[in-house]
Design brief:
This protein has 170 residues and is mainly α. It is built from seven helices and two strands, in the order H-H-H-H-H-H-E-E-H.
C-alpha cells in the first residue's frame, strides 16, 4: 500500500489533512457555535504551521537531506502542538474546584502584555479552556487535536524514512 507513496505525495497528503482539520475547526466555530478558547487558537496556529511546511515540502519535492529537514521541522511543530493540546486535555480533566477562572481574550492580552507574557497566561489556562463542548467517540476537540498532532508528527518521521530508503536504493 505504501510502496507507491513518494515523499512529495506524502507531504501533499499531510497538507490536505491539515487543511481539512482547520476547515473542521471553522465548521465547529461557525456552525456549531464552539468558540475557540486561547489554547484552541494556539493549536490552530500549530496546525497552520504544519500545513505551511507540508505545502512547501510538497511543492519543493526535496531529496533525502531536504526531506529530513522538512520532516524534522514538521516533527517539532507537531510536538509543540501536542504539548499545547496535552495541556488543554489536562485542564479539561481537572476537578471543577481546581479549574482556573476565565481570563481576558487573546486580543486584549496581546494589546496589554508582551508576546511572552501573553503566551505564559494562555498556557496557564483559563476556565473556558477547561470546558468540553463537543465530543466524538469520547474525545474532546483538544483530545482529537492531540491525536492528530501525534499522527502528523509520526507521519513526518515516516516520510523522512521513505526518502532515506529511496535514496539508499539509487
Amino acid at each position: 500500500m505504501f510502496s507507491k507513496l513518494t515523499p512529495r505525495l506524502g507531504y501533499g497528503i499531510g497538507f490536505l489533512v491539515c487543511v481539512a482539520l482547520f476547515a473542521f475547526a471553522l465548521y465547529l466555530q461557525y456552525y456549531e457555535q464552539q468558540e475557540p478558547c486561547p489554547l484552541c487558537i494556539l493549536q490552530r496556529i500549530a496546525f497552520t504551521g504544519l500545513a505551511v511546511v507540508f505545502l512547501v515540502a510538497a511543492l519543493h519535492g526535496p531529496g533525502r537531506i531536504g526531506s529530513v529537514v522538512y520532516s524534522g521541522m514538521l516533527f517539532i511543530l507537531a510536538g509543540i502542538g501536542a504539548a499545547i493540546a496535552s495541556r488543554h486535555v489536562w485542564l479539561q480533566h481537572l476537578p471543577k474546584n481546581q479549574v482556573p477562572e476565565c481570563g481576558p481574550g487573546v486580543e486584549y492580552m496581546l494589546r496589554k502584555f508582551s508576546l511572552g507574557q501573553t503566551l505564559e497566561k494562555i498556557l496557564a489556562g483559563s476556565g473556558e479552556c477547561a470546558e468540553v463542548g463537543w465530543t466524538f467517540l469520547g474525545l474532546s476537540i483538544a483530545g482529537w487535536s492531540l491525536l492528530w498532532f501525534v499522527l502528523l508528527g509520526a507521519f513526518a518521521v515516516f516520510l523522512a524514512m521513505i526518502s532515506m530508503r529511496r535514496a539508499a536504493k539509487h
